[in-house]
Structure formats: C-alpha cells, structure tokens
Amino acid sequence: MSRPYDSMDPKVMDDDMLKAAVGEQGPQEEAGQLAKQEGILFKDVLSLQLDFQNILRIDNLWQFENLQKLQLNNNIIERIEGLENLTHLVWLDLSFNNIEAIEGLDTLVNLEDLSLSNNRISRIDSLDALVKLQVLSLGNNQISNIMNVSTRLQIPRCLISHWYHRTQEGSRGTAGCFRAGSWSTPSSVVPLILGCLERIRHSHLQGPVTFPAFMKDTLQHTGHAHEARGCVAGGTRYPLVTVPFLFLGQKEMAKIKHQYSIDELKHREAQMQARLEAEKAQQEKLAEHKMAFIDHLDGSFLFDSMYSEDVEGNKLSYLPGVGELLETYKDKFVIICLNIFEYGLKQQEKRKAELDTFNECIQEAIQENQNQGKLKVAKFEEKHLLNVNAIREESELPNIEKKLIECSDDITELFNMLMTLEMQLVEQLEETINIFERNITDLVGLFIENVQSLMAQCRDLENHHHEKLLEIAINTLEKILKGEMDEDLPDDVRALFVDKDTIVNAVGASHDIHLLKIDNREDELVTGINSWCAHLLDKIHKDEIMRNRKRVKEINQYIDHMQSELDNLECGDIID
Q1: Any idea what DSSP says for residue 43?
Q2: Which of 107, 146, 233, 422 has the most CB atoms lying inside 10 A of its own CB?
Q3: Residue 330 near residue 337, CB atoms below 8 Å
Q4: Rounded to whole angstroms, how far apart are CA atoms 351 and 441?
C-alpha cells in the first residue's frame, strides 16, 4: 500500500528542514545547548530521520557525506534520487511512499538494510551494485512474480551469494543463478520472500505465482506444485516452481519474525554504540582543544556567535548587497580563526614537549641523587654492623666506650653527607625549575602576542565590514526617502530607516556587539593560558617544597633510629 497525498502541500527537502531535523535529533541538555551554539556540520551527522514530512522529492543531501542511517518512510516520494553522495549509507528506509521503480542506488555500495515496502514497485531490479545488502523488504508492492516473468533471475547477487553458502547441493550458474537443490531460508533474506508472500496473501491474486525452484523447500503450500517451465541463463536451464496457493505456517512465521526482531535489535544496538563512540571522540577532541585554549575556533562558531544576539545586524542582512558582503566577511573571518586554531595546536605541542622534558630532567636528577644516597647508606650500614658486633664481643669498658663514640661519629657523618646531597639536589632542581619557568613563560608570551595579532586582524575585518555596511545602509536610506527603492524589505527592517540617526545607531550597535564578542574571546584565551601557566608554576614550586621536606624528614628519622639503637646498645653493655 503506497502513501496517498494528504491535505498538506508537498514539500522538497531544503536547508531549513534539514537543519531543524538535525537540531531535533542531535544531543540534548548541556551537550545539545553547546551543539546549537557551535552549529552542527551536516558532514558530521551519522543518522537523519525525515519521516512523516510530506516530502515529494529527495534533494539537498549532498552535504551529508558521512550519513549512515536515513529514514524517509511515510512521505509521498515518487522517485529514488539525490542519494548518490551518501556512499557511507548502511540503513535506508523508503517504505510507505509512492515509488514505482528501484533506481538511484548504484553508489550505495555499503548499504546493508533497504526497506521499500508499501510502495508501487512492480519489478525487482537495479540492485546489483548493493554488494553488502543483507536485508531487503519489499512487502505490499505490486510485484506478482519474483522472477518478473524474465529469462534471467532478478535477485541481487549479494542475496544469491548468501543463499549459495546455505546450499548443500546447489551450484552456481554462469549468470549467478542456482540449480535446484536443498536450501533453507537464512533470516537475513527472509524479508524479500515475506514481502512477496504477503503481497500475494493480502491481494487475493487469481492464478498461480512463479518462484525459483531453489525456494521450494521454504514454501509451504496446498495443492500440487509442479515444474511448469524454466529460465535460461548462461546456456543452462533452471527449473521454476509454480505454486497456486501460498501461505507460511504459524510456527515458521513466528520463528522468522523472532529472528528478524533480533537482527533489528542488534542493528539498533550497533548504531547506538557507533553514536556513543562518535560522541565520546567528539568530547575528547573538544577537551584537547580546550587544553590548547582554541576550542570552537576551528570553524565559524565565533563569527556565528557575533550574530546570535545581534538583532539589528540580522535585520540589516536583508539590505541589497549585504548578503554578498557577509559571505566575503565570514570567509575571511573564518580563515583567521582557523589560523589561530592551527597555531594554537602547534604551540600546545611545544608546551607539552617542554613540560615533558622538564619532568624527565627532574626525575633523572632525583633518581641520581637517591642512588648516591643509597650507596652511602649501604657503606655506613656495613661498617656500622661490624662495629656493633665488635662492641658486643668486647669485654673491656674503655674499648666499648671508644667504639661507641666511633659509631656515633659515623652516624653524624652519614647525616651530614645525606643532607649535603639533598642541598645539592635542591640547588640543581631550583636551577632546572628556573630554566623551565623562563622557557614556558616565553612560549606563553609568544602565543599570546601572536594570537592578539590575529585577533587584531579580526577587528580590522569587522571595522571594514562596518564601514561598508554603514555605506550601504545610508545609500538605502536615501533611496527610500527618494522613493527609488525597488527591493521589498521586511517591515521590521524598513522600520530602521526612519532617519539617518536611527540607521547609524543600528549599524553602530551591531558593530559594538561584534567587537565585544571578539574582545571577550581574546580575553578568555589570554586569561585561560595565563592562569594555566601560573597554576602550573605554582604547583611545581609547591611540589618541590613538599619533596624537600619529605626527604629531610626521612633523613632525620633514619638518623634518629640509628642513634636510638646505638644508645640502647650502650646502656645494655654497661649494665652487663
């Protein structure tokens, strides 16, 4: 059953419809607000839903070059067209339309799921290019013969290939056909058969219907099925089966529907997973851009934000010649933003490399110092153990006291050596930190200086645009006052042209908003990177202070422990 024309006027897909659909189907809540401010590029859209829109003609989809799922069901589409650029399309729903022929699908080489049910299709053809097709739905069309009363099989190669792997005795013919043999229906091609069977069941056709012989085992029928004739392909005759009355049993139908539901669920889950992964990748990319302080500068976001709150500027865009002026202005403005973006990424890499080098130097210095300290402690402990054993074996009190004094001196000497090593490390790290501080400050300063220079170019563009816009506005005012204005203007735009002061103030207000947006973005960038630099350096200094305190505490605790053991040993020997 095709879709009848309703009382609404037929529609053609235009930019407004597409933008509205993308906005409604895009991310919601906080992510959605960000997407609306930033703008969603059509080339980034993976799924598009345009059902129940009364669309008569498919058009303007060339920008959706990465689209994977397209839903155009329940419209009044008459032809399959305008899809040639959607080469990544995997899922296409054109059911419940007024389509009469299968066409315009040759470039959709990645298509896996195609729904054409409830149309006016009478012939199955033009599917050879769909080499990845797994699900084809053709129910409720005007197809009375799956062979199209032709001398060649019209079933797509991808489905034939699938059937072939399920066949135990079948063999491939030269034209991609099959000899009759044992065959069972895979779930992925069931919609093709079901579509034809449902068409037959619901239309109460008179007379027999012809199917390929290799479908015989799948078709349950009443009456007598016989080989009525054959089709010739590549010089070989393939038998056909004529079935006077057809139906599927309830058990098989339930099994088929269950499997088909599972496949559909898996397909949707895969789509959901792909969407989540795409959103995650987008969020990670945005986080990287924020770390470089150039987020939303890789496109027209800043320019668009200048006009998002500019009521007067949007009204003035209706003036003759302003549209072309705006396009030129936007192109140049976006180029500068992209220059800032690319420069920011490069500078972020330099800052990261500088920080990585600094951390490596710090860790190497600390590790080397610790190794020296471990060697000195090991030598001390070796000597100290010998002295302690000697004290325990000594019976003469003067000798014991002498060795105790010697051990105490060794402990004091170890303390001095470890503290000397720590002071040397502190001086070394302080010098390294100072060098890093100078380098990172220079990098940040250079980045700010060059960004401010590029932002100044944005202001120059805005000033130039302002002058041109003011000139056009004043000329338009003069034409209106003289009655020479040929172009029709909206009422709210014409209301600005009361006198010169009104129009000058309107143009000036627009100009002020644009400059404020540019200034705010520059301040945001400069404040952000200065804050990052100050926080980084402050953290480095605090970390070094904490490291030094921790190390001094470790040295003191170890020395106190060794001295305490020696004192306990002295008391014990004296008592003995």
Answers
A1: G
A2: 146
A3: no
A4: 10
Q: For the whole prediction, is pTM greater than 0.85?
A: no
> Does residue 494 sit in helix, strand or coil?
helix
Q: With contact defined as beta carbons under 8 Å apart, do 88 and 68 qualify?
A: yes
CA nearest neighbour of 54 among 99, 15, 3: 3
Could you give the maximum distance between any two Cα atoms of the chain, in Å? Answer: 129
Provide the 3-class DSSP secondary structure of residue 64. coil
In this structure, the number of other CB atoms found within 10 A of the CB of residue 566 comes to 19
* CA neighbor of 150 nearest in space, from 107, 76, 210: 210
pLDDT in tens, 142-173: 876 554 433 333 343 333 333 333 333 333 33
Cβ atoms of residues 272 and 280 within 8 Å: no
Between helix 322-393 and helix 500-575 the angle, nearest 10°, is 10
pLDDT tens-digit readout, 203-239: 333 334 444 444 444 444 433 343 334 444 344 443 4
The candidate with the shortest Cα–Cα distance to 156, out of 184, 180, 140, 175, is 175
Q: Is the dihedral of CA 539, 540, 541, 543 positive or negative?
A: positive
Cα separation, 289 vs 292, whole angstroms? 5
The percent of the chain in helix, strand and coil, each rounded to the nearest 5, is 60, 10, 30
Tracing tokens 């890093």 back to the chain, one arrives at 436
- 145 near 130, Cβ under 8 Å? no
